[in-house]
Amino acid sequence: LLVHARFLFFAKKAISRRTAFASAGGRGTLQHPQVSHPIVRFAELLMLGGVSLVIVLQYATVLGGATTKLFGIDNTFTLRYLLSAVVDSRGALVDTLSLAIVTSAVTAGIGLLAAFYIARTDFAGRGAIDFVASLPLAIPGTVIGLAFALAFNHRPLLLTGTALIIVVAFAVRALPYSIRAGVVAMHQLHRSMDEASVTMGATSGQTLMRVLLPLLKPALVAGMIFTFTRSVTTLSAVIFVVSPHWSLVTPTILSQMDRGDVGEAAALSTIVVVLVLAVIHGVPRLLGRDWRTQK
User: Fold this and answer.
1) What contacts 89, CB < 8 A, 6 or more positions away?
2) How many Å apart are CA 104 and CA 280, to the nearest integer?
3) What sign does the dihedral 177-183-186-190 (CA atoms) show?
4) DSSP class of 293
5) Which residues contact 173 (CB under 8 A, 6 or more apart)?
6) Cystine design at 178: which of 54, 111, 200, 261 (Cβ 3.0–4.6 Å)?
7) Quick one: CA dihedral 22, 217, 100, 283, positive or negative?
8) CA distance 150 to 168
């Protein structure tokens, strides 16, 4: 896995050097040439419609399991499972949301600094940091979770059973995406803006916070939303580090399925989907602008 990841990493960097571009004004565009050929458009609609239908049917099945007494056998409508999920799994929901929010903030800060170091400095080791930060993408989450459980199970780094080990596991899995998003966004901003800021007497930190950060807001928000979503829905990376003191939603759903409580598991899954969709579509608008439609 690591050999393949190394090959793809350097191949991607070689291709990026040939196709990279920068914006002197720091404003991008989402406008692309539209396909007008009717056969091509129909084929695209047919393919995307089929994929979307499969996805919608999966979510509809989960919703059906959460709102019927016994999905497929007794389809009588009921809200008992949803109410039970809110009451019985309230602790898991609160713990998961709080830890995911903390992880989003931590990952955004570390990812921004790492991206600035990789894309805007000439210090040695930039490539090594970029490569090492991408390694968690090539390692299965179960391996990472097991490694954390073994590495932090003894003093002086005894973190087993604490919230910190869960936040670290969340961050390690999501940090590569935040760093890549930040690096790509910084590469699209021309260095002349940095040079102009330095010419006016600003330090590197002031340039980052006052010049680059406002322009990187869409990428930063996107990275935080992705980190939150991935933290709430991940299972493999945290299955070995959860404890009775800090319960998470995904292990709770797995435990309910093992006990045969399909209705409660479907109800809790439905609540998680609603919360994630609310964050994805609500946070950008609460910040004053939808980052997906920035012009």
Assistant:
1) 249, 252, 264, 268
2) 13
3) negative
4) G
5) 136, 141, 144, 230, 231, 234, 237
6) 111
7) negative
8) 14
Q: Is residue 139 classed exposed, middle or buried when 0-12, 13-18 and 19+ CB atoms within 10 A define those classes?
A: middle
Helices and strands (DSSP H and E) totals, the chain: 13, 2
What b/e sequence results for 66-77 when a residue is b if at least 16 CB atoms lie within 10 Å of its CB, and e otherwise? bbbeebeeeeee
CA torsion sign for 106, 112, 118, 121 is negative
CB < 8 Å & 24+ apart, contacts of 75-83: 80/263, 81/263, 81/264, 81/266, 81/267, 82/267, 82/270, 82/271
- Contact between 20 and 187 (Cβ < 8 Å): yes
Helical residues (DSSP H) of 25-88, grouped into ranges? 38-67, 80-88
E-strand ranges in 66-118 read 68-70, 74-77
CB 62 within 8 A of CB 248: no
Cis peptide before 156 (omega within 30 of 0): yes
Instruction: Provide the pLDDT for residue 295.
Output: 46
- Rounded to whole angstroms, the Cα distance separating 148 from 157 reads 11
Task: Quick: pLDDT tens for 214-242.
Answer: 888 888 888 889 999 999 998 888 888 88
- DSSP-assigned beta bridge partners for residue 23: 189
Can you give the pTM of this predicted structure? 0.80
Contact status, residue 183 vs residue 13, Cβ threshold 8 Å = no
